[in-house]
Amino acid sequence: MNDNITVRGFVASEIRTSTTPGGVGTASFRLGSTERRFDRTANAWVDGNTNWFTVQGYRQLAGNIGCSIKKGQRVIVVGRLKLRNWEKDGRVYHAVDIDAESVGHDLMWGSANFIRTAGGAPAAGQDAAAGNDAPGDADHDGQGDADHDVDASGDGDADDDDLEFDAVTGELKETAA
Questions:
Q1: How far, in Å, CA of 4 to CA of 28, rounded?
Q2: Cβ-contact 24, 104 below 8 angstroms
């Protein structure tokens, strides 16, 4: 099955990070997506069923998930849907997985500040595995060479330590130059 899916929901588990034997970084978490509907008799919004997914990200996305996403946060996930079935002790079990292409905060529920990472996406025609650094190396953690540091605007001219954000609005504070 190779169906694309977009799901809005909440991160229901801690982020689990690991590295495959081949050196590829991975990150996974459980995602709950609860149906909301308006109950006309009660004149209120009520929760419906919750669908559960295991979200799996690889390479650069895995590192960014590990640094950015926390349990309890609202997120939007885009990826490939995978259904798994297995039998154990005479009972059939089902699991729904998403191989994530993109994961981001759902800004309907809060604000976020985007900071472009060094390494980024591979160039067109470049193998995705060859174009990304594995999570956990120096550039991923922001401790890389000075020529790889990138500021919030993405142009690489400012040092992130000089930027101040308003904790309430998430906006950049004015700084005297």
A1: 18
A2: no
Using DSSP's 3-state secondary structure scheme, residue 11 falls into strand
CA 39 to chain centre: 32
**Alpha-carbon span 123 to 138, nearest angstrom:** 21
Cα separation, 9 vs 70, in Å, equals 13
CA dihedral 98, 99, 102, 106 (to 10 degrees): 20
Longest Cα–Cα distance of the chain, Å, equals 70
The model's pTM is 0.63
Interval 24-44: pLDDT, tens: 999 999 999 999 899 999 999
Q: Where are the domains of the chain?
A: 3-162
Q: What is the pLDDT of residues 111-129, one digit of tens each?
A: 888 888 776 554 444 344 4
DSSP 122: P
A 10 A CB-CB count for 160 gives: 11
Q: Cα separation of 20 and 22, whole Å? A: 5
Map residue 161 onto helix, strand or coil: helix
Residue spans of beta strands (DSSP E) within 89-126: 91-105
Coil vs helix vs strand at 162: helix
Query: Has domain 3-162 been given CATH number 2.40.50.140?
Result: yes
